[in-house]
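Step 1: inspect the first sequence and its tokens.
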Amino acid sequence: MDWKYKHFHQERVFPAPRDLVFEAARTFMAESLGWQVTNTPDGFTAQGYSFSHRAIANLQIQSAAGGASSESGTRVAIELLVERTGWRGFMLFDVGGYYNIQIRKWLDGVQWSLHQKLTGSHDEFTNPLVLADNKAAACIFNGCLVFIVSMFALYFLITFICAVVGLITGNLYLWGRGGTLAIHGIWARILSALILMFGAFLGWRIKRKS
């Protein structure tokens, strides 16, 4: 398991030559998304921030296999690496599939940018990022994510405090959905020590990878 980055991957084939798809993808990531773009031998790399987490998107743009190269199209593969640590907390998993949804929007954006280049138009109102910018829904979604992360953080903090108390006093109380679990004596101290060791291990791994 990569403790520094969470990995995501999606790809799509576009019915257009590689040079046009490359320019469309590069334009969208640099101008519409505002990320820093660096060319690579098989595509480019884009770096920026997504939902308070630093991210790196590696785009591989290659001609898709087919009977006739002019008709086979171009495959765009996006590998997204998102740093788990951000100012909103540590991301253990992708809540609500947020980043997978973002990659789909980016691929839609490449299609939109390609259409703009093929038709010579520039209609920002049809940009997938603009269409998806529903502020009310975004606020509710972000609020739910912050609430979930805060509840997890509060639960782990309470468990950590209970483990410290359990190690000192020999009385460990763990709160859960089924009620409060009370453990006393030597087993309380052993379990408390294991909880604290696990927390210290996670903290060490996060600090080491950051």
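Step 2: inspect the second sequence and its tokens, then contrast the two.
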Amino acid sequence: NKLVGSNYIDWKRNFDIVLTAEGYKFSTVEACPAVPADNAPDQEKEEYAWWKKADEMAKCYILASLSNVLQHQHQSMNTAAEMLLNLKELFGYQSRVVRQDAMRVLMDMTMREGTPVREHVIAMMAQLNELEVLGAFIDRETQVDIVLQSLLKSFEQFRLNYNMNKTLMTLPELVFELQSAEGLFYRKTQAMVAQWGEASTSKAPKGKKRK
């Protein structure tokens, strides 16, 4: 759908998806490399050329998705980042209330008993992505901290180990490690249940023998 103003939030979400899928989003968040000298290394020249191409493609995607009036206002801008900043200044106020609501949802998310840890963390990752689309900035380390604090008490030892070892993980890495820990908890619980069952059976009173 073309951006007309009132649909800015949905437009920005869809635009980020497309730009990420095409591999051009970096040009909207990273500064343009310096123009390489004639005798600069080939890699430096290639990086500059790739950024310029990505920026041009991002600009085309933006202009193609704007209403005619907005196209006219933005077509002379130099970079995609400049276009996006101007659009945010024009319509970003819509994001504020929605962003506050999304943050409230994130902070209220706690893992429920019986929910697989992967399912819980994936849901939190989706909410964090929603906040990012709405303009909130939460650094990666803080994102991990928020997820860890939302877990059940059975993951307390995992949290302690994570903090004591000063571990740094991405969220996908955290999901993998939490799944491993969850599997270990399950096996320990099953072993304890089996031991308890055996102990209960051995201590059960024997019936009286008939004379």
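Step 3: confirm your contrast with the notes below.
The chain is about 70% helix and 0% strand. The mean pLDDT is 87.
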